[in-house]
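User: Hello! My lab partner asked me to get a predicted holo structure for this protein. The small molecule is magnesium ion, SMILES included with the sequence. Please write out the structure tokens.
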Amino acid sequence: MVEVTELTKTYQDLKAGQFVALDRVSFHVAPGEIFGLLGPNGAGKTTALRILSTVLKPTSGSARVAGFDVNHHPNEVRHSIGFVSNNTAMYERMTAWEFVEYFGKLYGIEAEQLERRMHNIFSDLQMLDIRDVVGAKMSTGMKQKVSIARAIIHDPPVLVFDEPSLGLDVLVARALLKIIGQLRDAGKCIIFSTHIMREVERLCDRVAILYHGRILATGTLAELADRYHETDFEELFFTALAESDQQQVQLNGSLGHSHERDSFSPTTSECL
Amino acid sequence: MNWRHVNLIYMRELTDQLRDRRTVFTITVLPLLLYPLIGMLMMQVAQFNKRQAANVRIVGLDNWPSELPLLDKRNKPILHPGMIDVSEWMNFESQPWPTIDGEFSWEQMLTAARTDIASDKIDAVLFVEPGFEQELRSRLTVAAAGTTGSGSAILNDADSAGITPLSTQESVVEHVGVKPSSDGLQVIANLARDNSRIAQERIGVLLDSWRAAWVSSQLASAGMSPRLIEPFTVDATDTATESVKSAVLWTKILPMVMLVWALTGAFYPAIDLCAGEKERGTLETLLSSPARRAEIVWGKLFTVITFSVSSAVLNLLSMHFTASFVVRKLLLSGIPDLAETLGPLPIQAVGWLLLLLLPMAAFFSALALAIAALARSTKEGQYYLMPLLLVTLPLVSLPMLPSMSLNLGTSLIPVTGTVFLIRSLIEGRYFEAFIYLPTVVLVTACCCGLSIRWAIKQFESETVMFRESERWNLKLLLHHLWRDREDTASTASALLAGAIILVSIFFAQLAAGSFVSGWSGIASSTFIVQVLLILTPCLLMSVYLTRSPRRALRIHRVQFSHVIAALGLGVAVHPTYSALGYAIQQLYEIGPETQQLLAKFQHMVGSQPLWAVLMILAALPALCEELAFRGFIFGGLLRSGGALRAIVVTSLLFGFAHPVLQQSIAAALMGLFLGLIAWRTGGVICTIVVHLINNTLSVSMAWMAMNHFEPPAALSWAVYSQDSSWTYTPTWSTLSVLLALTLTFILMRRDTQTQRTVQAEMA
Ligand SMILES: Nc1ncnc2c1ncn2[C@@H]1O[C@H](COP(=O)(O)OP(=O)(O)OP(=O)(O)O)[C@@H](O)[C@H]1O
Ligand SMILES: [Mg+2]
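Assistant: Hello! Below are the structure tokens for the protein in complex with magnesium ion.
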């Protein structure tokens, strides 16, 4: 359903120069599966998910969503994906109902069908009581629910959640994870980024550990436990990061001093 | 483009803005309240002004000719036939002239007047000396005797008054010392104080009017007709229709007011729609929706246009209604002159103004949207309004200059041309408007198209949409520039180089003035401008900001066929270039001063050896300008596929780098052509060749003509001598166009290597 191959993204950054936020990242996700993208702050999770939702363009490499390439068919990709992130806020002067309706219309859903779907979604997510509340007056939890409603209004096969439990209390976060679980059971292909281990353990079928723009390991929780000889997932995560840091130090030692991890140089052909 | 998306986005943004109290207030409520409030204030001030009558003290009213008294017993002015009634503007008090044996001296009177004026008790003092009437009469007789001068009479007056001689009849500012009087009248006022100055002016009016009455009465008593002093009057007929006349002021002011409001009305919603959305984090939601970037831009653009138009219309209407209300008041209170100029705007004028508004609102909105997209936050966005206003205000207010009118030249200026066109339409000069309609429409359409394109580009640019607030300081920036320099110039450094060149040329011109002394002056100033101001910045930047100065200056090997074609093209395009220069001079006439200067310049050049002239005026500029404009700057602007941008911007910079307007236009047009060549041939060599040959031909033909050479007989089919200048024959002029087109066609064709070079440059 989602196939990411050798995805690389560099940012132009004043301080660090060419900054590699994603370094040849590859993974794939099947329908009915929750794929956890696990990484500390600044690992590049948001960058990867933004590329999947075609908001950003990759520097190199490719990503296919529901069979469409993000580079060549961004519009088809956007129709097959629902994107929820803490950067996809809702409009302050719009009610929940209007907000979801607006996106439903943008997706080109027929009025009748849209009405039906919205009723279903609003009752499924237990949002009927907030349907006429404007964004400015909503709590973080309510907003997150509205965002999910917005993301699933067009019934996309792929859903992308970027740290959806950020700022939610335990109760609401629990409810949210339950919703995501239900969506998986409905056969959706779900990518879920977080840095909270418990969520990964509870929810994810397969995990990738992302660190400094690189994938350190991919696999089911059992496979990872095998590989790092560690059953506690939090410990496992730290082991993986520490191992990577050590390798990096060794690499730097052998290459001489260089704090730039992998400097990206644009290939300008010498043709004269 | 899915217009359903555009419509959805438009409707949403519109309702969203309308739900925002601030927007609704600034767009609708503010103009509806603002102008009535201003109007009220104006009325108040006007009333205040009127009540403020000047207080004038007359010392020695008893010395006034009793035959035609100035004031009555109650100190009210007497209206003799033909006099102006000043009783509403002036209050009088009178003091008798001090007697000889009183202790009062002139100095004392002056001091008293001074203190009273200073303490605001009185605004001005008029002294009527005892000899005034006598002097007046002596004038009559002396004038009759045919001699001038009246010295003795004054001395007598002074003696009889027992004070120091007085100075002339009117205005002596306080600090001016005492001078011998000639006519026996003197006004004391303090011109630094408004009240006092007004009082003095009004005394002047009163005295002028009394003087006319006096002359008339004297003429009458001498048995002559008072008409003698004004033997005839002229009847004037105004051909302006009533509606046009009342619209005169409006047609000047309203377009400007309306356009300024259209701009500000566009700007604030634009900031909210771009920077505001970024700030609130909703932009990414929209970007991840099915709407394409272009659709988002169009949707937002229509929203901004809506607010721009309604803001301008509401302001216009509110201002107009207020004005007509104020006008009625003014009429009632008896100031019909002012009232007439503010008369109601004819209905068709309103229509034309709205027609002007639509394209301009579209243009401003797209501009505001693109600029607002740059901002990371609303606060940052607000800062961008000022530069935008600084650029557009001159364009909007240019038509208010009295000497400007609609012609081909002005019709080509964005915004200004449109304002002129609308003014012609309002004033009913439909034919004139019709002639310039195509150019104005074309220019406006280009501006709209380019600014919309720019806005869409902004929305497609990741760096603009996802700019993080970075820590920023000069050291970081310099470090970044050095560390991350690439093979060729970046777009930013290219624009910076262009700006540096223009600014330094501007200051160099200011410093040098327009005066260049002799050939050495010409040579050294050309050298300074070309080498130091144009080439050096680009050289330095290519050394310090890029990894390969040669590539940054675009010194690439080029196709041999291209060089040959360029050689021919230099020759073939020159007749067209000369014709173009001539046409531009017809269009925008060169001022007499500049013309004189150019003639002097020609003369100085003509007396030098040809090789020196060619080196300095042909070769040097060709090399320096091409390396800078079609080299470094062009390369930077070519990055990330901006061929059109590179061609247009470098030609504009190239144009502005020339001091005389007519040269600028010709250079800018030539710059477009050179830019095309620079892009197709993938380097700077060919444009150097074309530029060099073009310059060489211009300079040497002028030089030959100056030195009275005849064109060689072998070239008689192409060049002939006329009025001591060399001119191309019509045959060759026509043929050369065909040849130039053919050669351009050859230049357009790239081989694979050139193709690769250009692709690498545009990456
Ligand atoms: N527009 C940008 N310009 C420059 N650098 C950026 C930009 N966006 C992100 N980065 C950098 O790229 C790196 C990865 O960022 P990203 O947001 O993908 O991380 P993340 O894994 O989502 O982190 P977090 O857990 O904090 O959300 C960070 O170091 C960030 O500073
Ligand atoms: Mg993130």
